[in-house]
């Protein structure tokens, strides 16, 4: 009995050590994924129907075969890319659904998000996370690292602003597809829709294409809206959401409110309510809703909690919210009712009515 107990303790210790090693090397996955994107591995494999052996892949990418082998071995172990047999006993690399998300120009690519979050600018604030927790001052890790918040930094650094807009556009392509496929009915009867914080207009462009009766207003800060490309059915409007929101039949907010504290969210939502008709208007919010249940949908819950940590590192007061917390800010903003619709994306849709 004692021997069995010791063996169980030993196994338990190994599992705990593995968990801590995952923490120690957590950055590794991001760095290797970034490397794969920069090398263009997924883009090259996508152009080949047959498995590609190591020597051919390394030659095409102009890189060391031995180093590439180690990169691919790591990613294959994570389920990104796959190694399959080919002729003469050789092995070749092929795509997987995961690796296709690392294509630089794929329709559902998440590469832009990897490049943003792995940039030196976005990595630096993580070193100030404990400073934020210990400090009573209203200063976020991003401001501690760079002397200004992420929006002021982007305003004066066009290259970083482009990284942010590209990442938001990539997020839009993945999430909006899910909304169109799962929640098309919420756009029926909407003739005008303003996307608050809409970046380069990717979101509205997709919605107008899917629902051509909509006239889109892409509303964002001057340094963002002024460089947004032309988009059929969409006009770009510069402004500040804390001051006012352009009038429309409905307002769309995706990944905006999680950047701000409750009081700021309430201010934004009040401006949104002022912009829509009192009897027929609605605000469409696309944000994470943290699940408070212990063992429910662990994968999605993990993503939500990781996003919350990203908000802590990259914003001054931002956070992801539970259903109860959403109920609080929507009620305080004056909405009479709201509902939460699940989609196949990470974030559900929250419909709020005056």
What is the element layout, followed by pairings?
Elements: H1 2-24, H2 26-39, H3 41-46, H4 54-61, H5 65-77, E1 82-85, E2 91-94, H6 97-100, H7 111-117, H8 120-123, H9 129-134, H10 141-146, H11 150-156, H12 158-182, E3 192-196, H13 202-210, E4 215-220, H14 222-225, E5 234-238, E6 250-254, H15 262-274, E7 282-286, E8 289-290, H16 298-314, E9 321-322, H17 323-332, E10 337-341, E11 349-353
Parallel strand pairs: 3-4, 3-6, 4-5, 6-7, 8-9
Antiparallel strand pairs: 1-2, 7-11, 10-11
Could you please describe the fold and organization of this structure?
It is a single chain. With about 350 residues, the chain is α/β, with parallel strands linked by helices. It is built from 17 helices and eleven strands. Strands 5-4-3-6-7-11-10 form a seven-stranded mixed beta sheet, sandwiched between helices. It has a two-stranded antiparallel sheet with strand order 1-2. A hairpin with a 5-residue loop joins β1 (about 80-85) and β2 (about 90-95). α11 packs across α12. The chain is globular and about 70 Å long. GO terms for molecular function: O-methyltransferase activity; protein dimerization activity. One of its GO terms (biological process) is methylation. This is O-methyltransferase. Belongs to the class I-like SAM-binding methyltransferase superfamily. Cation-independent O-methyltransferase family. COMT subfamily. It holds the Pfam family Methyltransf_2.
